[in-house]
Amino acid sequence: MTARPRTAGLGLVLLAALAAGCSGTTSEKNSAPPPADPAAGAADRARAYMGAVVADDWTTACDLMTAARRTACHDRHPTPEPPDPSGPAIGPVLLDRPPTRVPATSDHPAGWGVITTHTVTWPGKPARTSYTALRMTEAGGTWWVEQREDVADTDLTHSGDPAASALSRVAG
Asked: Which residues, other chains included, contact 115 with Cβ-Cβ below 8 Å and sequence gap of 6+?
């Protein structure tokens, strides 16, 4: 019969421990926002950028680039182009895979590598899928496009990280 008082005593100790761990109000515990997912933020901005690019909305696309690259982009695309009604049908911009960390190169800082994809279908021709790697960097709490490269078939088939492979190529 001595086991029963010992079990009851352990139960009281357990309840006291649980109560101590549950102290504080719900609002106190939830007052800090959960940490933002940097990969998700980078991916959202990458999709917005590529959506603007495929829509020929260069004002928006250039405004989503890093400050160092923004002016040159606006200089290359000074006036909006009217849509070409005879142009191809372009599918939505999607993520091809989750973003990955990409190291700095001699020309670009480290950041997140995001691969987007979209289809292009010219009248009377089969759809073609395009893959684009974007280097996203953070400044002032916002994600910006630092670099854009086409993704080669070899990046997709022979590389463990296609984004890093495409974004590490040296322009020649």
From this structure: 95, 96, 97, 131, 132, 133, 134, 151, 162, 163, 166
**For residue 37, is pLDDT > 60?**
yes
Q: Is 118 left (phi over 0), alpha (psi -120 to 50) or beta?
A: beta
pLDDT in tens, 123-147: 899 999 999 999 999 999 999 999 9
CB 118 within 8 A of CB 166: no
DSSP 3-state assignment of 171?
coil
Pairing of strands 100-102, 142-150: unpaired
Q: Exposed, middle or buried, 2 (CB in 10 Å: 0-12/13-18/19+)?
A: exposed
The pLDDT of residue 125 is 93
Residue type, 166: A
